[in-house]
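WARN retry 2 of 3 for item q-0093 after timeout on previous attempt; input resubmitted unchanged.
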Amino acid sequence: MTTSDSGKDITLRIAQNPEADELLGRSPLAALVGMLLDQQVPMEWAFTGPYTLAERMGSDDLDAGRIAAYDPDAFTELFTTKPALHRYPGSMAQRVQQLCQFLVAEYDGDASAVWRDAATGNDLLERLNALPGFGTQKARIFLALLGKQFGVRPTGWREAAGPYGEAGSHRSVADITGPESLAEVRAYKQEAKAAKTATKTTAKTAKTAKAAKKPGGSSPDK
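OK item q-0093 returned
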C-alpha cells in the first residue's frame, strides 16, 4: 500500500491476490507491466504477473534497469517457466523488456515519471501511447486507472480516457475494486464482445445478400 497524489493510501483489488495487489499499489512499474500483460488472458492473471515475475527474479519489486539489461533468453525463461506468466509468454517477455528499455532511455528507469508532471490528460495520454506495447485503448484504460485509483488527475483526464474515464462505469480494470466489480466488468466485456460478433455477422449476411442480387451472383434458389 502506498500514497496517491491526493495523499490517500492506495489499496488495490485488481489481481484478487493480496500480495500481488500490494505490489501493484506501491510499484508504478508493476502497475505498468500488469497493464501491458492485460490482453487475451483473465485480468487477475495479467495483474498477478508482476508479482510472480518479481518473485522469480528474487526481489520484492521490479526494477526497469535490471529488466532492460537482462539476458533476453534468460528473461524469457522467467515467463515460460510453469506456471507461465501469460498465454503467450515468449512474446510478452519481449514486450516487457522493450517497455523497460524505453523507460530507461526516456525516463531514467522511473515508471512514475511517465505521469508525474503531465500537465493535461491529453499530455498523459500521449506519453502512455508512446510506451512500447501500449496502443490507444490500453493507454486510455491505464489513464483511467491512474485517475480513478491512483489519484493521478491532470486537467481533462476523464475526457482523455474516453468512456473508460466515466464515473460509475464498469468497462475496464480501472473500475475493479473487488470481486463484485470484477464480475461486473467481466460481464460488460462479454456483452460487448457478443454485440461486436453480432454486428459482424449481420454485416457479413448483408454483404452476401447484396452479392447474390448482382448479375451473375449466386442465388439461394439456384
